[in-house]
Amino acid sequence: MSALIRPKTITVDGLSVRYAEGGQDGPDAILMSPWPESVYAFEPAWPHLAAAAHVVAIDPPGITGIT
């Protein structure tokens, strides 16, 4: 587990989607997980991105085992 990235889940049209959110007010940065990684793939860049933007990373359904 990551100390920087704390994933949550949301249900959209009956489908559970895992995401992580952080950063500050300002421009939005939406990060789509690279195949076959999860939101944790962004951990090295997370502090830098979060210092400059509101960051949202999304795991495509099926990547995390959540369906």
Percent of residues in beta strands: 35-45%
**Could you list the spans in which at least 5 consecutive residues all have pLDDT below 50?**
none
Counted up, domains total: 1
Strand order of the largest sheet: 1-2-4-3
Tell me the overall shape: globular
Biggest sheet overview: 4 strands, mixed
**Secondary-structure content class:** mainly beta
* Whole-angstrom Rg: 12 Å
Number of strands: 4
Average pLDDT level: 85
H-E string: EEEHE
The termini sit apart by 21 Å
| Quaternary state of the chains | single chain
- Classify the helix fraction into a percent range: 10-25%
Number of helices: 1
Explain this structure to me?
With 67 residues, this protein is mainly beta. It has one domain (8-58). The protein contains one helix and four strands. It has a four-stranded mixed sheet with strand order 1-2-4-3. Helix 1 (46-52) links the parallel strand 3 and strand 4 (54-58). The protein starts with 7 loop residues before the first strand and ends in a 9-residue tail after the last strand.
Summarize this entry quickly:
With 67 residues, the protein is mainly beta. Helix content is 10%, strand content 36%.
Top keywords for this entry?
single chain; 67 residues; mainly beta; four-stranded mixed beta sheet; 4 strands; globular
How does the SSE layout of this entry go?
Elements: E1 8-12, E2 15-23, E3 28-32, H1 46-52, E4 54-58
